[in-house]
Amino acid sequence: MTLSVRPLVRLLVLLVGLGAALSALPHLVPPPAYHHDFNAGSRPAASRVTIVSAQGWTQDPDGLALDPGREGVLVLELPAPGPYTLVLRGYLYSRWGPTRSHNSLEVSRDGTTFHRIASDVHLGDGELALASFGLRPLLLRIRASNPSSVPVLVVDDLRVLARVHPLVVLVLGVAAAPLAWLVGRHPGWARLPSGGVTPPGLDGGRPASRGLALGLAAVFLLLAATVVSHHELWRDEWHSWLLARESASLADLVRNRRYDGVPILWDLSLYVLTRFTRDPIGMQLFHVAVATASVYLVVRHAPFTVTQKLLFAAGYFPLFEYAAISRAYALGLLLAFAICALWPRARRRPLILSPLLFLLPQTSVFGLILAVSLFLAWAAESLLDRRHRVPLGSAGATAAILAGGLLLFLVTARPAPDRAFAKHWTTHLDLDLVWPTLATAWKVYVPVPSLGPHFWNTNILDAAPLLQAILGLALLAVAFACLARHAPSLVLAVSATSGILAFVYAMYFGFLRHHGHLFVAFLLAYWISALAADRRPIPRRSGSAATLGDRYRSGVLTVLLAVHAAAGVGAATLDLGLPFSASAETARFIRERWPDPDTVVVAHDDLWIAPVAGQLGRDVYYVRRHEFGTFALLNALPDATPRDVIREALRLQAAGQKDVLVLLNSGLSEHRAALQADARFRLVRTFSRSIVPDEIYHLYIARHPPPVARP
Length: 711
Fold this sequence. Notes:
Elements: H1 6-28, E1 34-37, E2 50-55, E3 58-60, E4 63-66, E5 70-78, E6 82-89, E7 104-109, E8 112-116, E9 127-134, E10 138-146, E11 152-155, E12 157-164, H2 166-184, H3 210-229, H4 235-245, H5 250-256, H6 265-274, H7 281-301, H8 306-313, H9 316-324, H10 329-341, H11 343-346, H12 354-359, H13 365-384, H14 392-413, H15 431-445, H16 465-483, H17 487-506, H18 512-515, H19 517-531, H20 545-577, H21 583-593, E13 600-603, H22 606-616, E14 620-622, E15 627-629, H23 642-656, E16 660-665, H24 669-677, E17 682-687, E18 697-702
Parallel strand pairs: 13-14, 13-16
Antiparallel strand pairs: 1-12, 2-5, 3-4, 4-11, 5-10, 6-9, 6-12, 7-8, 7-10, 14-15, 16-18, 17-18
Helix pairs in contact: 1-2, 3-7, 3-9, 4-6, 4-22, 7-9, 7-10, 8-20, 9-20, 10-13, 10-19, 13-14, 13-17, 15-16, 16-20, 17-19, 21-22, 23-24
């Protein structure tokens, strides 16, 4: 069967050309992104703001302040936007006096006024589009009034960001289209799909040539690297990296991870990487390489159509969850796909799968479930295939090696008794947990998130959990029907799905990245089924579910992969435009405002604040643990109370005779209320731009000596 890939090649060239042009644009026309700090004695070298006038303002150590009963007008000149859109975002902050309702703040630009009247105006929760696509400098006017009886801080610092104007994207796309058409016309592209090392599948799909596999893997590498370069690490990523980096030896590594309850392969890989670099970019590059290798295996060896392979590479799990976010699951995906790639050879050389089956459980508990299910499918195929009987000794050796992998998993993944998470098994029937567990199948097979900045781990049908459960059962039935005519594949799908759902129900419910292995199990089973020479033929006249599933299985897979591709591209695009975690912004602000590495940062908890500690590159004092540290210890110590946080901050302030910073994450309303009620603490900044909803931070300061109010 000849597959025409010219239209797909043209599309790929267009996307790559457009991506390359957008990547080169900031170097050809540097974006006018800058910030200006109004603190006394602080003038960042990168500032391109010119203060035209500052009538009525008084310089304060923390910025510009208004005296009692004063009005102030601050006029700033900003550089021309050029081919970009300038956005004022997140850093215009006001702290008002006792008569809050009578204070006012006005921001205007070249005749366009953005008016805000409120207490504690803070643009971190929104943004103001200042101007787009122009060559004339901008005048920004900030007008404020202070009718209160005490001085108030109004202007702290100003940050302006730049975005590529949509018109520029359109022009570049139009310019790249003729190039894509010319490249796609080359006759060499028609010869790309050729035979691989395995026979064609029974659904029209076939392995690809090495050239096509390398080409598509290179495109995926470019896209994944672009997303990763804009991805802010969140706490799980920082936890593994910091834990490995701060371990001086393998014994330290084992001791530091004693509460994690996960196998050791990922941590061991990071431990080796941290012997060469302390920068987490090393982890991200390694992770992208692993994800790219998985895509190469699918394109090169999987009996899928070219369209299905392209959609898979752009899918939500391969592109976003298991590429952009650096976790252990990408290793499991690579090992599982490698097993499928070697599956035809395993009929003659069964021991070839043994090392992979041994390593797969060392990636995660879901890797363990997949390893056992793959072994069961291999055993079922060996028993049913009368032409290729597997020697009993080889089968026993493979089973023994897998058993060794399971034993190593139990040794390395067993957490300490005083761990904080997943302490108890659910062994009774709990309908309140049954329906959410079944709903995970819908969320995985249709991973379309709800709209909004906090899209991660959401689904468009989250408002109807019962409907999700019903649809999840229906999708599982369709998936099993697609595999029903090949018993080993059905064994793989049913055992893996049952094992994952049982673990989710009984031990740890988890999130979409964990549940995603349900869809991975379906892909593995489909792969093996498509390679099966002994798959029973489809009867001409039959209306059974198995017959319909077998007849339309390729279309079902294509539709599912298309949905995944839309979700994957959408999630990657949002990650490019929005901070995944506010930890990077928080750490950058602390470094700029308090460059002294000895400045003490007090945190209520280590799990939530460890990402900031990682970005800062220095220890943070964790009140819950009563010690300085970086990575989190996932033990069951009691949470720090607001009184604990205040007491420890003031103790460290008195001991060091210097300012102390207090950092809280979102959701701690009682902590924030206690700090705001204490006159010795002042809110400095709220960092609220984050895809991860609980990695929003509030920064307070306890000055030494305490500030004296002016009359």
